Backbone:
């Protein structure tokens, strides 16, 4: 039976009286059963266990030892932790806007009407698809190494630089940020979809009134896009704080020269799965939740100043 | 009615999951009595016995190509001798080895036999992950000098069996020196200034294709530096090197980077964690290199059999108090949770005491800790191995007692040294500040581990 | 009048040229990697051109066995994990979505909110205890920790995606089936599920993509090299012994992304639509 046929059949039958709100409890338990077990056993339970662990010293091989607030006190003096926070914040505050700007720009260009839109859209999406893979991170490491491709290309433009971009603390993080910006395809598609939804009539009316392209953008496109920009921003921030693969592969698990690419999750991994300080790693994980939660909350609060929703 | 059933049941599920999660997190692992390393077993306990059926052992080690080949050959010989034991060997480079070992131990599936280093020995031993080898009768420790066996002991238990000992020196690419038309100064009496000047000379003479040397960057060299200044790196489990001496160590690295005796800071960072076979000395980009004496075989093979020789490190003190020591090159240890501790001990016994194994393995892992094996193989040493053996004999006058092994919590020592070297060579910290920060960081790690 | 038309034509050409350049720059790294994998080792570095002078597959044959096991083992392991994950997600997320979208039950609102919150939760806060749990169950160093959670609808993103989709299906269909005497399971299985194929396809494809690339979890749980999945094996490659052959590393990297490229070629429609409508990664 096709959807249309079903719909026609449904419309012919009289509406049934509304059932009471809790009628489906038993069915809900059946359908939701796996999720309930997963939520309590694999999410909430571990979250609380993690909280408890953060007050202990636990190396997985011997019993956990209660140490009170020691782990949190340690965070205050842990210079490597501070470095990792600095590195991750830099990555997020520089990388996320950069990536979104590139995505938005290209979406705008595509939206104005370019032949072969589907081709371009797919072509730009490919890096996004591959971006989080180990293979690309390995490639990046070689491209920006001392004998890498990037230096060869710079050579074409007459710039001779024999340095390894990933072995120099002042440029190592930039290569990873560049990798993030390179994966602009995914947010670009979202922007494109959003741009498509803006009625053409708005633009036509505006250009009839003599508005320039820039003014059209500022007063029509941008405001109507703000919900999507906001959405992209929230997801990108939450996601980038958890970046791991690129940092690990490019620095070979070390965190880079002078810890210049010691991402937060990499430091957490080193503490938890390298040194087996599970208690401290749990404390670090909760700190991450707090940071990401706080930033998201700030994002949501700030959104009322710049995000326009359709009324 | 139905709603309360739902809510009660879901609360029950939540409570059970929570308790389970917390309980599992809080409880430790079950220690099997035979694996306990407190040494409190009865005197009548003869330990585990060999089984008659087929047994598979997993053995892990790190090393370059040369070591892989030799070890596999030795394994074949072992399997021929004990047909019911099958050995699966796993190997990797030094850098990835420890991460993988840590995860596999924590996951409860550590290999039966692991190659161990003094850097990590204390941390694995003190977390009860290594079998007390003195309880395994299949392993004969009597052929070794008690002092050497002692290097694997802690708190009365034998945590690991020393495979080899090695001295520390500077490896010289003689072919490269000849090509550049340079000759070494007198290396028996040279000072650090002499070395600095000569290394710079090499870099200048090569016109940019090679550098003279790279800075000392590991625990072994730092300990030697400390001892040359009359101090020790660790005493009673605490960092005891003075910040002044430590700053001198970093200052030397900075001087060499700036003068061109060593490569640029970023190049040093780039090659810091590459495999032995891709290091600058092996690829002809560096002429002198600090190294454990017995690694000369591996480097020479990796460098296409270039001619290498070993010379002592410089010293500024004409009196030459014994600053050197024979470091246990590496150990064999048995996992506390091994399902076949007896067979594992048999394997370790073969690798350390059997002359046939000794002949196959040579001195690739170092001068064998078993003197009988040393005698048996001295006739069949290859050219590079002979160089290493002769070197150890030559610097014997500098050799003193071995220092403390790295305390529990200090296993990030080499990585931390490397990082602070980077801070100094990239001129982000002065050597004095780096020395202070380094000491604080290492001491903090040690304190939080106990 | 004429001036404006000329201007639009010029700007249209510049736009085309710009876009083509942008695509070239964007795809260049990947193309270079593929091309380099077909060049002998000595010709890889200092050779930025994309022109293939030689078609040398020795990197592939050499790299395939370089880790002591044929690379196919790792591909198979990844395939197993991915298959398990996709199956788990499809079944349990669809079930949960049905409950949220079509049923009325007590605590529905807070449960839905909780489900949404888990989408945004950093996984690291559950990783350590999950690892501890699996370690005590002796399931570390197996595929279970990677597959089992998917059978408990822990990927809430897909629940959300399917809920949105189901909400778009008219309730009259459910009602009609109920009149005919169908219970919830029949409504779910025979009426809604067949209509949900786009959402199911999107779920399957994204699960495939994310699981194939999931380095962190596979890194911590798989310690036996026989069980290595593709990302972990590839990382091992970088540490591998012997003279590092960049050619074979590229070759195996290309092999590791081929399934993604295939996924992209055949699943493009769902991938792009999935991203556009729900903002997937």
Residues:
């Amino acid at each position: 039976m096709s959807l249309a046929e079903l719909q026609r059949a449904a419309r012919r039958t009289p509406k049934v009286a509304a059932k009471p709100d809790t009628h489906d409890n038993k069915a809900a338990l059946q359908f939701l059963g796996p999720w309930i077990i997963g939520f309590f056993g694999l999410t909430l339970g571990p979250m609380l266990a993690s909280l408890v662990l953060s007050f202990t010293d636990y190396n997985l091989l011997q019993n956990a030892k209660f140490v009170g607030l020691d782990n949190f006190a340690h965070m205050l003096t842990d210079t490597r932790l501070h470095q990792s926070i600095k590195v991750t914040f830099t990555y997020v505050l520089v990388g996320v806007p950069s990536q979104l700007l590139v995505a938005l720009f290209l979406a705008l260009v595509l939206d104005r009407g370019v032949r072969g839109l589907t081709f371009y859209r797919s072509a730009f999406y490919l890096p996004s698809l591959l971006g989080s893979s180990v293979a690309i991170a390995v490639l990046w490491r070689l491209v920006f190494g001392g004998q890498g491709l990037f230096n060869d290309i710079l050579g074409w433009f007459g710039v001779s630089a024999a340095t390894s971009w990933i072995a120099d603390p002042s440029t190592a993080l930039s290569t990873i940020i560049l990798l993030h910006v390179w994966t602009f395809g995914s947010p670009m598609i979202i922007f494109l979809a959003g741009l498509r939804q803006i009625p053409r009539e708005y633009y036509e009316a505006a250009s009839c009134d003599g508005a320039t392209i820039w003014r059209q953008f500022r007063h029509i496109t941008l405001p109507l896009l703000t919900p999507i920009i906001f959405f992209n921003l929230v997801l990108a921030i939450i996601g980038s704080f958890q970046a791991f693969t690129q940092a690990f592969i490019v620095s070979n698990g070390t965190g880079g020269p002078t810890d210049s690419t010691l991402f937060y999750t990499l430091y957490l991994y080193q503490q938890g799965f390298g040194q087996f300080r599970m208690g401290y790693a749990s404390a670090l994980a909760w700190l991450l939740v707090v940071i990401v939660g706080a930033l998201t909350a700030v994002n949501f609060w700030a959104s009322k100043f710049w995000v326009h929703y359709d009324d | 009615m139905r709603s309360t059933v739902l809510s009660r049941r879901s609360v029950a599920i939540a409570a059970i999951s929570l308790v389970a999660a917390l309980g599992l997190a809080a409880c430790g692992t079950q220690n099997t009595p035979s694996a306990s390393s407190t040494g409190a077993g009865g005197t009548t306990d003869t330990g585990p016995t060999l089984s008659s059926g087929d047994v598979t052992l997993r053995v892990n080690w790190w090393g370059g190509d040369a070591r892989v080949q030799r070890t596999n050959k030795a394994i074949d010989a072992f399997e021929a001798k004990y047909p019911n034991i099958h050995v699966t060997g796993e190997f990797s480079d030094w850098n990835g080895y420890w991460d993988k070992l840590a995860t596999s131990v924590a996951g409860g599936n550590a290999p039966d036999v692991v190659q161990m280093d003094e850097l990590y020995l204390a941390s694995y031993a003190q977390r009860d992950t290594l079998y007390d080898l003195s309880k395994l009768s299949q392993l004969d420790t009597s052929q070794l000098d008690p002092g050497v066996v002692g290097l694997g002991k802690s708190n009365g238990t034998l945590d690991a069996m020393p495979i080899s000992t090695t001295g520390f020196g500077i490896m010289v690419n003689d072919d490269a020196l000849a090509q550049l038309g340079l000759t070494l100064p007198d290396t028996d009496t040279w000072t650090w200034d002499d070395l600095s000047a000569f290394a710079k000379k090499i870099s200048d003479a090569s016109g940019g294709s090679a550098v003279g040397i790279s800075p000392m960057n590991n625990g072994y060299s730092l300990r030697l530096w400390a001892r040359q200044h009359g101090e020790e790196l660790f005493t009673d489990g605490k960092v005891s090197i003075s910040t002044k001496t430590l700053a001198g160590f970093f200052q030397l690295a900075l001087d060499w980077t700036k003068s061109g005796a060593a490569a640029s800071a970023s190049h040093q960072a780039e090659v810091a964690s590459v495999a032995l076979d891709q290091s600058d000395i092996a690829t002809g980009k560096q002429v002198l290199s600090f190294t454990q004496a017995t690694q000369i075989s591996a480097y020479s093979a990796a460098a296409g059999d270039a001619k290498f020789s070993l010379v002592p490190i410089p010293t500024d003190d004409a009196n030459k108090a014994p600053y050197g020591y024979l470091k246990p090159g590496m150990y064999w240890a048995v996992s506390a949770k091994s399902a076949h501790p007896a067979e594992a001990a048999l394997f370790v016994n073969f690798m350390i005491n059997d002359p046939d194994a000794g002949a196959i393995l040579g001195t690739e892992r170092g001068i064998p800790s078993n003197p009988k094996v040393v005698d048996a193989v001295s006739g069949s040493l290859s050219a590079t191995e002979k160089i290493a053996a002769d070197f150890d004999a030559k610097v014997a006058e500098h050799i003193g007692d071995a220092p403390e092994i790295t305390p529990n919590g200090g296993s990030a020592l080499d990585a931390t040294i490397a990082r602070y070297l980077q801070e100094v060579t990239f001129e982000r910290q002065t050597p004095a500040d780096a020395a202070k920060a380094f000491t604080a960081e290492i001491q903090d790690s040690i304190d939080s581990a106990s | 009048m004429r001036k404006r038309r000329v201007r639009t034509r010029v700007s249209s050409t510049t736009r085309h040229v710009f876009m083509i350049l942008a695509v070239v720059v964007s795809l260049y790294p990947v193309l270079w990697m593929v091309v380099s994998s077909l060049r002998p080792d000595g010709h890889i570095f200092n050779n930025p051109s994309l022109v293939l002078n030689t078609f040398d597959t020795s990197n592939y044959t050499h790299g395939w066995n370089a880790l002591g096991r044929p690379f196919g083992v790792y591909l198979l392991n990844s395939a197993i994990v991915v298959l398990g994950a996709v199956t788990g997600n499809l079944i349990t997320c669809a079930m949960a979505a049905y409950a949220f979208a079509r049923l009325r039950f007590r605590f529905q609102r807070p449960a839905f909110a909780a489900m949404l919150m888990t989408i945004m939760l950093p996984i690291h806060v559950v990783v350590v205890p999950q690892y501890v749990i699996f370690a005590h169950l002796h399931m570390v160093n197996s595929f279970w920790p990677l597959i089992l959670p998917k059978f408990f609808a822990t990927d809430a993103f897909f629940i959300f995606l399917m809920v949105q989709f189901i909400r778009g299906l008219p309730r009259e269909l459910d009602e009609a089936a109920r009149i005919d005497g169908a219970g919830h399971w029949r409504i779910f299985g025979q009426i809604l599920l067949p209509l949900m194929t786009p959402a199911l396809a999107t779920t399957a494809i994204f699960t495939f993509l994310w699981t194939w690339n999931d380095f962190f979890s596979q890194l911590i749980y798989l310690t036996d090299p026989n069980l290595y999945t593709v990302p972990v094996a590839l990382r091992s490659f970088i540490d591998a012994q012997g003279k590092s052959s960049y050619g074979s590393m590229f070759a195996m990297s290309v092999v590791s992304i081929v399934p993604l490229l295939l996924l992209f070629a055949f699943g493009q429609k769902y991938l792009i639509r999935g991203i556009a409508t729900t903002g997937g990664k």
Observations:
- The interface with chain B takes residues 105-107, 129, 131-133, 135-136, 138, 140-141, 220-221, 223-225, 236, 239-244 of chain C (CB under 8 Å).
- The radius of gyration of chain C is 24 Å.
